[in-house]
């Protein structure tokens, strides 16, 4: 009989399925729940047990991992569901979703009130990173021992590091995503500007990669932008806008000038308005440099 802790996994989206699959493949006993049950089929085929409710999944496990798209969804399945929240006593809840610092603090308080432990652990990476188990995992807890206890689980999904107290990891994640989308928007503008000037974008990329601006990430997005092919979706535009909105909201609260990020916010919104909401967020290129 396995001595590994029983796990629950809440969420079967683009990131949740490959993350949970790695846990099942690592021989953990995983109980899975998702609002849209059909999305659990790949996990069930691998050996996960599909639950009818989030409460059932949480009650059956020692450690519950939550990977949902937004705090509203987390609140609905954890805080607003009395049975689910009541099941957290003596258990560890690991929230790997990207949410705002204040939202995470509120979830931590709700779990603690019911006798559970809470770890905030957003990830940096996209679907290929999740599939290959190389996500950067930013783990925070008010007691570092909580993170230490689940390190073997986290290491199945990526490379965990302890960041600090609750809200620390969420803040780092919003800063990282702000930088990611800023670089993507800058690349889109530069490529569109050169294209409309009748100049060769390949020469531009050679210059970039041959000097102080060198960045492997630009090569990952260059071809898709030039071909206007943004498949597969590794990080949806709608979700990136959600994160940018959170960064702006928290930044304003902390007194930082958010004008630069608000410009990116408008570009993402334009991309959504022209139908790119579920496309990879690099499709913001179509908002920056509209089709002729």
Structure overview:
The chain is built from 14 helices and nine strands. It is 53% helix and 13% strand. α6 (101-113) links the parallel β5 (92-95) and β6. The termini are far apart. By secondary structure, it is α/β, with parallel strands linked by helices. The chain has a six-stranded parallel sheet with strand order 3-2-1-4-5-6, with helices on both faces. Strands 7-8-9 form a three-stranded mixed sheet. α9 (168-196) packs across α12 (237-253) and α12 packs antiparallel against α13 (259-273). The chain folds into two domains: 7-165, NAD(P)-binding Rossmann-like Domain (Rossmann fold, 3-Layer(aba) Sandwich), CATH 3.40.50; 171-288, Orthogonal Bundle (N-(1-d-carboxylethyl)-l-norvaline Dehydrogenase, domain 2), CATH 1.10.1040. The protein has helices at residues 16-25, 41-46, 54-59, 71-79, 82-86, 101-113, 127-132, 144-157, 168-196, 201-209, 216-227, 237-253, 259-273, 285-288; strands spanning 7-10, 30-33, 49-50, 63-66, 92-95, 117-120, 123-124, 135-140, 158-164.
């Amino acid at each position: 009989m396995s001595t590994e802790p029983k796990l629950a996994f809440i969420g079967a989206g683009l990131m949740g399925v490959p993350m949970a699959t790695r846990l099942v493949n690592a021989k953990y006993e995983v109980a899975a729940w998702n609002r849209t049950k059909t999305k659990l089929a790949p996990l069930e085929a691998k050996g996960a047990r599909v639950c009818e409710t989030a409460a059932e999944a949480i009650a059956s496990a020692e450690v519950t991992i939550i990977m949902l798209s937004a705090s509203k969804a987390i609140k609905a399945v954890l805080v607003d569901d009395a049975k689910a929240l009541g099941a957290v006593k003596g258990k560890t809840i690991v929230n790997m979703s990207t949410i705002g610092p204040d939202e995470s603090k509120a979830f931590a308080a709700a779990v603690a009130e019911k006798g559970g432990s809470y770890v905030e652990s957003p990830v940096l990476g996209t679907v290929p990173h999740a599939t290959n188990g190389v996500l950067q995992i930013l783990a925070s807890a008010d007691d570092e021992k909580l993170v230490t206890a689940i390190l073997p689980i986290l290491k199945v999904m990526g490379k965990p590091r302890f960041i600090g107290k609750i809200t620390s990891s969420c803040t780092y994640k919003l800063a990282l995503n702000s930088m990611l989308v800023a670089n993507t928007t800058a690349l889109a503008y530069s490529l569109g500007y050169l294209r409309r000037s009748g100049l060769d974008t390949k020469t531009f990329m050679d210059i970039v990669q041959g000097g102080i601006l060198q960045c492997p990430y630009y090569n990952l997005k260059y071809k898709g932008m030039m071909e206007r092919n943004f498949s597969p979706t590794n990080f949806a535009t709608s979700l990136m806008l959600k994160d940018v909105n959170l960064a702006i909201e928290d930044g304003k609260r902390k007194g930082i000038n958010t004008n630069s990020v608000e410009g990116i916010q408008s570009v993402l919104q334009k991309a959504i308005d022209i139908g790119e909401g579920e496309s990879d967020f690099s499709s913001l290129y179509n908002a920056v440099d509209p089709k002729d």
